[in-house]
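For the sake of transparency, this paper describes our internal protein records without simplification. Because each token names a local backbone shape, the row as a whole describes the fold. One such record is reproduced below, unchanged from the form in which we store it.
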Amino acid sequence: MAITLADAIPLSNDLLVRGVIETIVKESAILQYLPFMPVTGTAVRYNREDTMPAAQFYDVGDTWTEATPTFTEHIATLKILGGDADVDNFLQSTYADVNDIEAEVIASRAKAVAHAFSETFISGDSGVNFRAFDGLQRLVGTAQSISIAANGGPLTLAKLDEMIDLVKPGKPEVLMMSKRTRRKLK
């Protein structure tokens, strides 16, 4: 099993790196749940199951029919997300009386990275920004969506359960939603 970014924080001996990772994880709840793995190269290839093989009941002595699943190969290219956090040496040495200006600038940049990652994780589209990665809306599409009504409608617990039932196998570990949707459910 891969290690999560949150689990990796204590492994860093560099206090600056540790602080940046803590800020990013704190600002992006998504990163608390995602596993990370080392990657050699510039992309990750994976197969997505399109159809499962059919299963049937048989009598003793029947001839079994072969059935095979179908897969589609996908490639996720690695992307770089970040930004420069420069502080003038004069400002750092003369105006760092109450706040450490460099620490504040780096923390602010880390927050920006976390927010950009979270937004892209949901709605990223490499067709719009070729430097970004595709988000869940693009990767999953309508395969795991529930239509409430033709023009929308109120959120109900029954519809939420219907959506949860689309996740296979088992139950989802996390439900991500907007703050507005969370308030409606509460």
